[in-house]
Structure formats: structure tokens, C-alpha cells
Specification:
mainly alpha; Multidrug-efflux Transporter Regulator, Chain: A, Domain 2
């Protein structure tokens, strides 16, 4: 079951990045990431925000784009970027399952 909101630490864990970078990207991409604040004032990110983080991560870390280039690409062709990101996530899941099978066979 998916959560309604994720903390900055949870988003950082999902992406394999640090919390500082999550906060930086949230401030750098305000048109794509709109965090809510909880009673303590902490940022809480929706599933849509997490998907935006995944797209940013893909463009900046995998495709090696600048922040400006990533923002432009998300504005111009957001659906294609979302599709590419989902394919990459699916491939990572398949790879993890294959590694589990290989490890089970090695026992």
C-alpha cells in the first residue's frame, strides 16, 4: 500500500540520495514539486512529488543533464521523461528479481 505523504528522508532513501539534495531539488523545481508541511513544519511529499523527484533524478544523475536542462526537458516533454523513468524503474525491479533467483540457485 502506498503512503499519502513521504518525508524528505524517505524520498532520499527511495532515490538513493541524501536529504540535503532532496531539499535542494524541491527548492529548485517548485513547478514540479509542491511539498506540504506537517504540524512540525517538515516537508511532506505526495506520490506525484516522488514521481517528479524520480524524473529529476533520471535526467540529472543518469542522463547527466544540468538542472536547467532537466527543467526545460520536463516542461517540453514531461510525458516522455515520465515514460522513460517508469521503464528504468521496471528494469531495476526485474534485475533485482533476477539477482534474487540467481542467489537462490547458488545456495
Amino acid at each position: 500500500m502506498r503512503k499519502l505523504y513521504y518525508s524528505a528522508g524517505e524520498v532520499a532513501d527511495i532515490l538513493g540520495e541524501n536529504v540535503t539534495l532532496v531539499r535542494f531539488w524541491a527548492n529548485t523545481f517548485p513547478e514540479f514539486i509542491r511539498p506540504q508541511r506537517n504540524a512540525k513544519g517538515n516537508r511532506m511529499f505526495s506520490e506525484e512529488d516522488v514521481d517528479a523527484f524520480r524524473r529529476i533524478h533520471y535526467l540529472v544523475r543518469v542522463r547527466k543533464m544540468t538542472l536547467e536542462g532537466a527543467a526545460r526537458r520536463m516542461k517540453e516533454d514531461g510525458r516522455k521523461v515520465a515514460s522513460e523513468t517508469k521503464v528504468l524503474e521496471s528494469l531495476k525491479t526485474i534485475l533485482a528479481r533476477l539477482e534474487d533467483v540467481r542467489n537462490a540457485m547458488d545456495r
